[in-house]
Amino acid sequence: MFEVKPRTCEVNMRFELSERLKKLPPYLFLEIDKAKRKAVSGGKDIIDLGIGDPDESPPREVIDALCEALQDSKNHHYPLDQGVPSFRKKIAEWYLARFGIALDPEKEILALIGSKEGIGHMPLAFVNPGDISLVPDPCYPPYKGGTILAGGSVHMMPLLEENNFLLDLKKIRGSTLKKARILYINYPNNPTSAVCEKGFFEDIALFAKRYGLIAAHDAAYSEIAFDGYRPDSFLKVNGARDVGVEFHSLSKTCNMTGWRIGFVCGNEKIISAIGKVKSNIDSGVFNAIQIAGITALDIAEKHLKRMNTVYQERRDELVDGLNSIGWTTRKPKATFYVWTALPRPHKSSIKFAGRVLNEAGIVITPGVGFGESGEGYIRMALTVSTERIKEAVARLKKVI
Ligand SMILES: *Cc1c(COP(=O)(O)O)cnc(C)c1O
């Protein structure tokens, strides 16, 4: 028998963090999170417009499909790396019906443990130390994080209101482009809720081809849109499939954020390289969840018809309300976020968010948390009821 003796000598263990971890940007939402927890535990009635996580449950049919898939013993083994064939086949059918694009389920589709997983892992396949990813600012944080964890660095590209929050490709220097490997885009956009036209996607495809870049389009909000607007696929424009991939997620589409399921489609070589990285790190999405994902894609259209009506009502309540109390806020065409400049005379989004939490008991997200160019703005999520939104506007009226 082994005898485990406590160490008697003085051990001064020092766990030095890797350079890549040290380089990760600080988590700017930390202070807000702390303050929020404190307010909640103090019994304050908090309205949380902070997180981008749908308040409603996944559709009943999807939960039933998962329960049924759980009963089948063959679903409890390690998943296949690429994903369950029937799920990939369903994604191909959905793409064809939704965007008119025919994809090969064997080579052009890969299941992901949520699209964040694929977005975060992708740079490991293409970025070497010294290489650069071109990242919009403000942005969804994993574009930066994934690149830095792969040893690369990021070049931030400001999204400005005067450009309708579209990238200005002309502003990127030749010396930056020489080292650039991946160009990230995201429309409908988080956090700005901006949308883009087909012409923008065409410019991106041409630009990526000219400079030998991979174009990675994050389409997490492609299904959350209003007033009859339907976001299109990047993969539809000429040349996009030579240079790019598109990330999708069931998280926002079917209220399945906790399930961790998404997928990436497009260029065969890029898909296969992401798959190679993944096969060395994870073992895929639980089969039962992929099978429930088939049902989710089957009923998505019906579910979204109702869900988008709900978000649209909330959007109207919030934006009309904010404008009625003197803010200048535009109605987004897509996503469940309202992105708006701070009301005058406020300048610091962190200070303003702190004030709104303390004085009004409302959690909002400071724009600067998504990148420097987000300063001067805040993001509010439409993930609470219209009654709560009404209440939020009434409370905001008193914050000066
Ligand atoms: C929510 C979100 C995702 C989706 O993440 P999952 O990992 O699929 O849950 C991807 N991109 C953006 C911009 C998001 O806001």
Mean pLDDT score: 94
The name of the CATH superfamily of the largest domain reads: Type I PLP-dependent aspartate aminotransferase-like (Major domain)
Q: In the CATH scheme, what's the topology name of the largest domain?
A: Aspartate Aminotransferase, domain 2
CATH class (first level) name of the largest domain? Alpha Beta
The DSSP helix count reads 14
What is the domain tally? Answer: 2
Structure description:
With 400 residues, the protein is an alpha/beta fold. The protein folds into two domains: 19-57 and 301-399, Aspartate Aminotransferase, domain 1 (Alpha-Beta Complex), CATH 3.90.1150.10; 60-300, Aspartate Aminotransferase, domain 2. It contains 14 helices and twelve strands. The longest helix has 38 residues, at 287-324. The radius of gyration is 22 Å and the shape is globular. The mean pLDDT is 94. The site of pyridoxal-5'-phosphate has 14 residues, from α5 and α10.
